[in-house]
Amino acid sequence: MAPEELRARLRDPGVAIDLGACAARFRTGYPGFAPAMRALYGAFPIEADESFADATVSLEVQRTVVGSRLARLIVDGESPFDPMPLSMHPALVEWGLNWTIAYRSHAWLMLHAGVVGRGDRALLMPAYSGVGKSTLTAALMCHGYRLISDEFCAIDPHDGTVMPLLRPVCLKNDSIDRVIERWPGLSTGPRIAGTRKGTVLHVAPNAMSVAARKRPARPEFVVFPRYGAAEAPALEPIASTRAFVKLSGNSFNYALLGETGFLALTNLVAQCRSYQLRYSRFEDAFDLIDALFAETEVAAPPIEPARR
Amino acid sequence: MKVLFLFSLLVDPLQPQPGLREWDEIVRIARMGQVAGVLHARYETAGALDALPQPVERALRSERAAAEYRIQMTRWNLQHLAETLAPLDTELVLLKGSAYVAQRVAWARGRPTSDVDLMVRASRLSDAEAALRAAGWRFGEIDDYDERYYREWSHELPPLMHPERPQPVDLHHTILPVTSRLRPVADALFDASVPLPGTVFRVLAPEDQVLHTCCHLFEDSDMWHQLRDLVDLDAMLRLGADRPDFDEGLAQSVARHGLHRPLHYGLRYAHRFLGTPIPREAAREAARRARTTAATQALMDALVVRSLLPAEPDRATRVSRRWAKRALKVRQLARRFPPRLLALHLWTKLFRTPRAAALG
Q: In CATH, what is the architecture of A109-167+205-294?
């Protein structure tokens, strides 16, 4: 779509994108948003204006008394986030949309995890801050895996599959150059310094991942990554009970879903093999994870459907 | 206006369905008005979930799940409160959302709750407070003015919190501030209240629940939950319409408590926006003594339309809407406090706190 047309549609009626598990609509009269939108969502088809969106975010520009411009996000008449300097608007939109999705996707068990896949087999990497989940997720996408999610692992409680929920991968600080220098052709948003997470850069999901975003995958592996410059590469099995505890503490709505969440997570760890991954170089992580997927598929135990 | 479509779907899901883009706006308005979970439940009750487009059903199911979680937290809270307060051997009357949860009324399925509102007779208020404090409930941080506001002029104590309970408790002794122009007869509310079988709790008589909702809408609202309150009112009135003695009971009750004006407005706007059947005798009684002039009525209509119906979801709240809410709040405050107290209250709220909290 031509930049002028994109700007016009962003102004009205908004541009809707199907992210997989949910759809988002972006609206703004600010012309500067269109380039970031093209860079981060260029691989997504634009949905019909008549489509339904789970979340609609409107970006507004606000002038302060001293004349500087702030980016402000409106979600359903409310402005639940502090405005940010206008130059940071792509980050505000990403985080605001993530926040909104996190609070209204209770049709799924929402785990905080990066997810990559090969065909319909998925590997989950639960997020603990600082372990390098996003970095490894982006790297695995570049290595040829299908990106299923960087933030939200949306488990369907009724059949135990993970539904893609594609968001741009948010790289932070040192990890930006580790990824960008190695894969310079990636489509990214602007590098934004001085946010509350430091310097950030968003990486767009690639075309292969976008094309498969409506195809659920079956979780087979739960891998807790640990990055350290001095870590010797290792992949050690961990007990499914431990994986359960770690995953339940890292979910957006495990408690809210009650029994449904408990059954979905019990089924998930029962059908997966869980590991701790230590690595310092991407190659080591790739080798270990490729080896996992090369093993024959283990027959998954039958899913006991969670009650609605 | 899409909000009217939302209202009509809430009342009757079995009708020509909106298109996807209409749904988009309806779901957003329903979320803003806190009735999205209710909408899902009403489709479920009508056996009409299959009529919902899949993404719409999923979005509403999500809101429903969030509401059910909060409802469950309220139930849990009620269980503990029952143990704590049963030994007082006094009437424990649940109000509003917590009452609907305890009554398990079908129309309130999917309606999220955020606290427990509990009313005890004024003579037992300090006993109830002491029992709750002994069980670990504490007031949040409040200053001397707020403490005085609640203790002397309000109809409830400051919210009580408990470190192990997810939702606070508001302990009431009547349904409107004691300084209000309107003075419902608290003892009569207790006398007419009905026990909930199998629990230690009671709820207001159905007629008084209607009056309380009207009071809440027009005399004591936080101004942001009005849409939901109106949907509650509609459901209660529809339920009442099936009972032969309801109209007469409501007429008697409104006369006893002198709550003509809130009932008059409640019936007027429920009928206007949701097509709610009007209990004729009660409406006549309310209109007769509400004594609204044409000018007040016109002003009220203008303010309520702006305040109660949700704004456009893609914009920050419009200035006219903010001012309509403020105007209604000022009206409430003016009716709540005698002039001298009002001046003190506004003075304190405006100049003591950094923001004009009193004006919302």
A: Alpha-Beta Complex (3.90)
